[in-house]
Amino acid sequence: MQLIIERGALLRTLGHIHSVVERRNTIPILSNVLIEARDGQLHLTATDLDLAIVESVPCNVMQAGSTTASAHTLFDIVRKLADGTDVELTYKSDEGGRMTLAAGRSRFQLQCLPREDFPVIADAGLPHRFTLAADKLRKLVDKTRFAISTEETRYYLNGIYVHATESGGAPVLRGVATDGHRLARFEVPLPAGASEMPGAIVPRKTVNEVRKLIDETEGEVEISLSDTKIRFAFDDVVLTSKLIDGSFPDYSRVIPVANDKVLEVDPRLFAAAVDRVSTISTDKTRAVKLTIDQDRITLSVTSPDNGSAVEEVAASYRASPMEIGFNAKYLLDITQQIDSDVARFVLADSLAPTLVRDEGDEATLYVLMPMRV
Amino acid sequence: MAEDTSETGPTGARKIIHVDMDAFYASVEQRDDPGLRGKPLAVGGARARGVVAAASYEARRFGVRSAMPSVTAQRKCPDLIFVRPRFDVYRAVSAQIRDIFAEFTALIEPLSLDEAYLDVTGSGFGGGSATRIAEAIRARIRAETGLTASAGVSYNKFLAKMASDQRKPDGLFVIRPAEGADFVAALPIGKFHGIGPATAARMQRLGVETGADLRGLDLEVLQRHFGKIGHYYYWLARGRDDRPVSAERVRKSVSAETTYDTDLFTPEAVRAALAELAAKVWRHCAAAGVAGRTVTLKLRHPDFQQATRSRTLATPVDSLATLIRIAEDLAGAEPAGPKGIRLLGVGLSSLVSASDPAPPPQLPLPL
After folding, report:
1. Tens of pLDDT along B126-143?
2. Which value does ipTM take for this structure?
3. Among partner residues A150, A178, A373, which is closest to B365 by beta-carbon distance?
4. Which domains occur in chain B, in start order?
């Protein structure tokens, strides 16, 4: 294998994929990136066995071939090369299993492992296929991923549940995430070809990698999936991931339908106030008490060690006065996702799930469970 | 004499006693069974993989030591008698001894069932003489338990500990403030309490054979070679050790482990073993009134290759069933692999007191 590629192009590609490679690996080859040169393209693949990213970039291929080398070492070397230099990668299988990287006056000999040993996630047999605009996929991730559980014991909550369903009579593609304390739901009109798709729990790491990679993508993302795998293809990238093998709980049961006390507040003023009063709390979980009265909310936090804090926020509220407590972080996470100027809380009582909506956005919905204060 | 309750005595020095029971487990067994007296005795398992937990002085003459594999001990001393340990008896005797300590000072730092540091700086007993207090404690222990203890008296923990070893068994040794530096200087580096074979070897590579050699090294050199603890060694070499006797040693973890007579191979055998260990840990947690968030699994294969895996939850493990499930999860589908498993351990750490006021509860979504 022999190829020449501009340093910037190589760095960008390695930058996209190297975060998949875990820093600590018990299987040596998982520390490596698969390097394949053919047809005027360099294809780089990184995997952690659950997730694989292949990115292709044009280059000058003098001799086709392939090998594998340490992803983090390669990334660090290329990062330190001067901008604009050409990087030459050469690998001859008879040269003791090393790849030569030459750039300017630098030469590196990198230890390689046989490409035959590099694990491949088979992505044949993904019967369901549809496309989704990158900006819609970005929004789906942004509106839901903060609620993904990190509790490994409930592994089936460690991802976004993506599935086809109906909303108000119209078919939608919906993403749901919950950690058992709050829930976030976002939906888009169902893309053609998605109606038969199985519900899929997309793991957190995959969600984060996809989100990073599509940050600047403008076109469509092609999504293919089966019961066990999902593939995202866009630009010059193909990301294939295993799905979480489990069943997502019936979340519709926790979305309140009979709540009737409507509280409307400016999400930014409200978030700033929550953030301020919770400063006084020393607990790991910062509880904020909301005393809701005619057109105003009084936020209060009491810390046995530290003291107390109170702040009043203007709001629109006409129902009977009530008190309710929430985890300050959860309130901030949700209000930060509200783009319009009105966050609408629909409440029942101090112990029941509370619905939170963005006035300008029918596609998103949040459910937040109170704290006992 | 007026009672002096300050940190240091009139001379500015602390008065620390290290009390160490002589061959504790073995002596308890000999006390309770006259047929064992005067005989070489090892407390521990005689089985293939047993380990000597304690050896009587008769056995020590043959070279039998604690932590020695039982097979080796038997070879060194063919007449060695093995007795199964009775930990509940040892714990009861240990509690008796601690009650005696408590009559002399409140500052007691137990190191194990059979040793403790006492800070008697403020004690008015015996005219404030730590030596007289140590003798009184030894006499009380002998009268009340029928067992002998050795004591070291000095002005810091390190020297008190070193002193208690000087006249064992049934002895007392005092290192006065003026003698501390000389005592340390003459001490071979391998005899320092807290310097194990590995550190001793590193010291020897630096040309350090004795405390006097250690004293010759600069603080900066010691810190470069040994990191943070270099500071401690630097002052030790000068006979100084400022660690306080801390009465409350907070428990950091609860764990249980077992070495199996025959290696475990099947997932079923491993699961059964894990359930047993988890139950033990759970009982100990309940008894100590603690709960933990981190579950640790330890596996050792017959070739002594060892692995530990752990998982930390957001909240303390709430039930024995959860503990077992997480332990099984950590073990994976094929815990034994082709080699089998020799030892398994289950531990809980990141402990919180079960009686701590709980933070205001977050209610769960009724999923």
Report:
1. 788 999 999 999 999 999
2. 0.84
3. A178
4. 1-172 (3.30.70.270), 181-236 (1.10.150.20), 253-353 (3.30.1490.100)
